[in-house]
Design goal:
The chain has 625 residues and is an alpha+beta fold. 50% of the residues lie in helices and 9% in strands. The strands form four sheets. The protein has a five-stranded antiparallel β-sheet, with helices on both faces. A five-stranded mixed β-sheet has the order 13-12-14-15-16, sandwiched between helices. Strands 6-9-10-11 form a four-stranded antiparallel β-sheet.
Length: 625
């Protein structure tokens, strides 16, 4: 698998792959963007095209293109390798039973996607070119959806299929495109039961293909004609389709979302089509379900702002309120689009006034402002009883705000509007938050200022401490140029056990096993070492460049080895001193004498090393920062 991974990485550009998930902008020799793995407002996520590595200086995650796909797609190494191999056109030989099972799962998913594409083409043909599609065309006319808009989104029509209800199955079977069992596995048909005949899942319905961001058809949503029930019918869960992870229209909207800086989330398929007709091309639909964490994370690949534009009824208002918590939990900003009074949904508004819908989206207000307005309602300047009820609703809303500073600002606003003391409102909010956490109530006198978002936490590394500057430089050398590891040992006499930091020492040992001319693979490293190696890959090491006439590289390596040895010696001396003191305190005279002798010996070695560390002209080499 190592050869396959190397071949895949050689054929793919990490910037192109990651750019499909994260909006990247060139910054010097690298590319930067907002990290998809943690919430941030200032880009700390870096991708090096030259070194084919990525690292986030905010959350300290990092690796190569395979590591990125593992994390973003929530798959293991083999899953990421297979996904990228398919993209790169590399065939993977499988010998392990687990590999074969994963391969079978991927082939099954690919078959589902293939059948969905065939079905979508069939449905679209029926809608526009067959008499059986007339009811679908009539419904689109009634909803004022143009043919061009419907075609853009791949809308089709599933015919009734006569008494047998198997029009799609007969179409697939007659052309050798798929069996009834395969269609059932793809969610396109109901499998035969007790010897009965298999039937199409979607019959006499307008059909909307649900695609992923790459345009693959994952499943379908079918809208019934007239009063038939259920009104909307979705594909069941399959190897390709998970309703909680899909958004209708994302394939069309993703580039517009990037350009607009936000995504508009509506409830239904017709709402997306109406939004597109009104010039709001960055709208996607949650397909009538509550907005999920998976859907928010999908949007977070291209934006940090979500505008919620749900139906205007009580159910839509409640859905937008619940969605705010999901969005806040993922660290994204949310706005709520409030439809005009009496307007049922975005589709209805667009049919009456397309410009009004676009203006409504543009005027969307911050989520907590809208929810607080709803909570206070008409209690402002009302009776004591009215203000009390409004305060209770406001406190319940304020307690949901995760950011302390934002919460405090809205606490002050609510207190002013309800003519209450801000301290009293804040106390009730903190009490409710404590009850929700199940934690005891604490009286907070003062809150220390939160650290700036751009300040990075200390990276997680093995050994319990950060590498010293010399260890960092040494690690950068062997990670970026593993062929120099042997030179460090052979020409400069460095022993791996002289490197005090365990992660750096392990990187040196791994580099020694890398074949000449090959790159050091991040896979197989422990997670902390992998993150350290990714960071070191992005570290500039100008001393690696030899200049004509002077071997700066040799001097830099010699100086690095000298400093690493000096640090190792200092650590050893400090350890011996502690052990010597403990032996003396315990009265172990013999041990103390041996430790004292060893201490003297090491100190002498250090003195001789420093004496021999000067150059011929008497100047010490100081090229390592």
């Amino acid at each position: 698998m190592a050869d396959a991974a190397a071949e895949v990485k050689a054929r793919l550009d990490i910037v192109e792959v990651i750019g499909g998930y994260v909006r990247l902008a060139r910054s010097g020799r690298d590319h930067k963007g907002l990290c998809p793995f943690h919430s941030e407002r200032t880009p700390s996520f870096s991708v090096s095209q030259e070194k084919q590595a990525w690292y986030c200086f905010g959350c300290q995650e990092g690796g190569d293109v395979l590591t990125f796909v593992e994390k973003i797609e929530h798959v293991d190494f083999m899953g990421a390798l297979e996904m990228l191999a398919e993209r790169a056109g590399v065939e993977i030989e499988r010998s392990h039973p687990g590999d074969r099972q994963r391969g079978q799962a991927r082939r099954r998913r690919a078959r589902v996607l293939e059948l969905n594409v065939r079905a979508q083409a069939y449905y679209e043909h029926i809608l526009w070119s067959a008499p059986a599609g007339a009811p679908g065309r009539a419904l689109l006319d009634d909803r004022r959806v143009s043919e061009s808009t419907a075609r853009d989104y791949g809308v089709g029509f599933a015919p009734a299929g006569g008494t047998s209800g198997d029009a799609l199955l007969r179409y697939l079977g007659a052309r050798g495109l798929g069996t009834a069992a395969e269609a059932a596995d793809a969610g396109l048909a109901h499998a035969s039961d007790r010897g009965g005949q298999a039937r199409d899942r979607f019959r006499n319905r307008l059909v909307f293909p649900i695609r992923d961001e790459r345009g693959d058809v994952l499943g379908f949503g079918g809208r019934a004609l007239g009063d038939a029930v259920p009104k909307y019918l979705n594909s069941p869960a399959t190897s390709a389709y998970d309703k909680s992870l899909a958004l209708f229209g994302i394939d069309r909207a993703r580039t517009v979302i990037e350009a607009a800086g936000c995504a508009v989330v509506v409830e239904g398929y017709f709402d997306v089509l109406a939004a597109a007709a009104a010039g709001v091309g960055h709208a996607v639909a949650s397909s009538g379900t509550a907005l999920t964490t998976g859907q928010v994370r999908l949007l977070a690949r291209w934006t940090r702002c979500v505008v919620l534009c749900f139906d205007g009824d009580d159910a839509g208002v409640a859905a937008s309120s619940r969605a705010v918590d999901v969005i806040a939990a993922e660290g994204l900003d949310a706005r709520i689009c409030v439809l005009p009074p009496g307007c049922k949904d975005p589709d209805e508004l667009v049919r009456s006034d397309p410009a009004a819908f676009a203006a409504c989206v543009a005027a969307a207000q911050p989520e907590w402002r809208v929810l607080l307005d709803r909570a206070i309602g008409d209690a402002e300047s009302g009776s004591v009883e009215a203000r009390r009820a409004g305060a209770e609703r406001a406190v319940a809303t304020l307690a949901r705000i995760p950011e302390a500073t934002v919460r405090d600002l809205y606490v002050q606003q609510a207190a002013s509007r309800l003519e209450l003391a801000a301290a009293a409102v804040s106390a009730d909010v903190e009490k409710l938050r404590g009850e929700r956490r199940g934690a005891p109530l604490r009286v907070v006198v003062a809150r220390p200022a939160a650290p700036p978002e751009t300040a990075a936490a200390a990276p997680e590394v093995a050994g319990g401490r950060q590498p010293t500057p010399s260890e960092e430089y040494l690690g950068s050398v062997v990670v970026q140029r593993p062929g120099l590891a042997a030179r460090l040992l052979e020409e400069h006499g460095l022993r791996p056990d002289e490197v005090a930091h365990p992660s750096v020492r392990h990187l040196l040992e791994v580099a020694l096993d890398v074949p000449p001319g090959a790159e050091l693979s991040l896979h197989g490293l422990a997670a902390p070492e992998q993150r350290l190696a990714a960071r070191l890959l992005l570290r500039p090491v100008p001393e690696l460049r030899d200049e004509a006439g002077t071997d700066h590289l040799a001097r830099a390596l010699a100086d690095c080895v000298g400093r690493v040895r000096e640090e190792a010696l200092r650590n050893a001396l400090a350890t011996l001193k502690r052990e010597l003191q403990m032996a003396r305190d315990d009265g172990r005279t013999d041990l103390a004498q041996r430790l004292a002798a060893r201490l003297h010996e090491l100190a002498s070695e250090g003195f001789r090393a420093r004496e021999g560390g000067a150059t011929e002209d008497g100047q010490a080499v100081t090229t390592v920062p």
